[in-house]
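Aggregate trends can hide what the representation actually does to any particular protein. In the encoding step, the backbone of a single protein was reduced to a row of integers, each denoting a local shape. The record that follows shows the chain in one-letter code together with its fold in token form.

***
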Amino acid sequence: MSTRGIFVPVVAPTGSGKDTLIAYAKSLYPDIVLSISCTTRAPREGEVDGVDYYFLSREEFEARIADGGLLEWAEYGGNYYGTPKVEIERAVSEGKLIMGDIEVQGVRLIRERLPQEEFSTIYIDAGSWEVLSARALARAPMSEEELAKRKSRYEDEASFKAEATYVVHNPDGHLEVAKEEMKAVVEALLARISS
């Protein structure tokens, strides 16, 4: 039996059902560890420190950067976001499957820093920009400028599909099929750990 686990970032554009599919995988396999990112942004209503994010001051975050405590980090919209190194290393050393919602830029950095056998990626394909922008606009109105920013981000995220180890398809109205695909991917990953 392998003693090392696998870190599995999940990449997907906004509105793709990523959080729903990660939560579904966790409900099926409670031993999956969920990676918790650090951020300097303020908590939103209902978010809990240490559950949704580790909410840090800029000074605390910059100290983690300086001491090498992050696997990757980036700045978006004036706030820092990053992946704590110690938690990933601990879960992998304990032979666990660890999943996290990580930006494309961060995933590409982490891929260079972890051994190939301890790293896989899942991309959630929920359709075209037109489909996802319609979903986003149905949830909340947004300005043309915000929509343009989201489109640029969508294009960056969609470019990752060809690099992903696994692709889960979640088009409108097919969540149950996507859940079955997600289950199959997780089972394949767990089989790699136990082989």
In short: The two ends are 6 Å apart (CA to CA). The mean pLDDT is 91. The CA atoms of residues 49 and 148 lie 31 Å apart.
